[in-house]
Amino acid sequence: MTTSSKVFPDARSALDGVVKDGMLLCCGGFGLCGVPDKLIAALRDSGVRDLTVVSNNAGTDGAGLGLLLHTRQIKKMISSYVGENKEFERQYLAGELELEFNPQGTLAERVRAGGAGIYAFFTKTGAGTLVAEGKEWRVVDGETYILEKGIVADVSLVKAWKGDTEGNLIYRKTARNFNPNMATAGRITVAEVEELVEPGTLHPDAIHTPGIYVHRIINGSPYEKLIEKRTTRKRSGGSDAVVT
User: Could you tell me how many helices (H) and strands (E) the chain has, helices first?
Assistant: First the structure.
């Protein structure tokens, strides 16, 4: 494979010189799907602290962003869902962790807007609730809208299925929920992929994130597929089956 200035040998080197204390970080993923696990582990090992992290959720205990919660490197979470994580609950209830709740669609649009250069937008979602407290609002055609600001991160971490050495990315299924928007919202975007290929290998119509948005990329394979919540039931024949 030819070398590229965007390709780094591992997650540690890909984060070298771009992460710092107190930064605003966008992190892709939905549950434990499409999570940049190798980059999160390297971020933990870097020792950076006081992070504000924008992510749909905060991982689970011992996986995803849960690794950074365990080491107390996250100061504030901007999220739409924070279940499945007892350490998150403990820190928040103890006043050790700040939390900014966003409705899921609003969070996705705030990140998308930031990546598109849109400073803010008005939405009806959350009007008249705690979500609207302290925010600008206006009435249009008899409906109340609140102003939500776009999010631009110092660094975005994303996970893709395939990528080429120029940074073009393809995601699979649920991994597309937040990763594409997170990739555009970072001043610096670092991607990890399951398979890294030469330019021209990916069909142009299949690319979800153009390489212009990606500054550094690594091949993170191999990966272990984690299950966020394992639910079992009996088959009709009596044996156990796993429903995921």
Answer: 6, 13
